[in-house]
Design brief:
CATH class of the largest domain: Alpha Beta
Distance between the termini: 51 Å
Oligomer: single chain
CATH topology of the largest domain: Rossmann fold
Mean pLDDT: 94
Low-confidence stretches: none
Shape: globular
Helix content: 40-55%
Radius of gyration: 20 Å
Largest sheet: 6 strands, mixed
Strand content: 5-15%
Number of strands: 10
Structural class: alpha/beta
Amino acid sequence: MKRIAVEIAPGVETEFTDRDRALAQVVEWAEKSTRFPVVIFGPEGCGKTAFLRQAASGLRELGYDVFYLHPLDRAFSAEVDDPDVKRLFLDLVRKTLEDGRWGRLAMAVFDLVREILKKRRRKVAIIADDVFQAIGLDKAAAYVKGLLNTIEHPVYKYEGIVVLVATSEGISRREIGRHFWAELRPMWNMPREGLQQLYEKLPGAKPPFEDVWRWTGGNPRMLGLLYENRWDFGKAVKEIVAKKDLTADFIRRWGKWLVEAVEDPDALWGRGAPEELIRELEARNLILYNIYYREPQFWVDSPPPEKDPELGVGRYVAWHTPLHREAARRALKEGG
């Protein structure tokens, strides 16, 4: 599968790196179709968007007509062989960019797939990245049900179909998980070898890789954040504190639990931690809660370790990255 180009930091581009097992899963999905929409979730910045872009490219190579939607990045494409459908799609994109009605474009994909299949059987893929934020979390489950209906009850028969959807929000994962309408698959940060390949692509002087690994836990976006901050760990932590709105009021309210969680994230599991706090931490993309079994078949690419205190990974709960955990620690120190 040809590797696409990805930007790992401003002005620094490289080819899609590592994730060999994940790409093998794409080939398997292409061969068998996806029985349910595959909803991929995981730490913010772990590489879900890059993976979906690579998957879209790879599926096209494998003979699929591919619709790709990423409303938050205003990135849309229809790599399809039907010129009429492509024109319809581009017209919808143009209207959507003008009026911001992202939901209309997301929903229109159902009609466009039917238009493609009306003429002849084809292999079709729908790749939707962070679409739930665009249409509203209250519509997330209904959208997934619509995708499932496209697979299970097509108006016109297809040769193959692959549906991949990504979200970083624990809240949307919980909403979708209440129904048996999707296959939920977590994706973790990159393994050490993969991150090192990206690290070596960054120009200029840099700290030892072992330090960078301990700071990022394999997260490509955090690698880029450190690079942008000239490898100043403290500045990167402060930026996360600000972006995640870890205010003094938030710390005063939840400080007792956060003190325990920065030492052991599993303190939030089965010990009476308030549900409201867990939802807040998930909504702010700080923790992954209720981690799946570590058997590889449950994951996209490789699962995290069973437990790694140095990286903030517990058996049932994990901080998205060590930098996220340090942001909570700093907020506790400054707001406590």
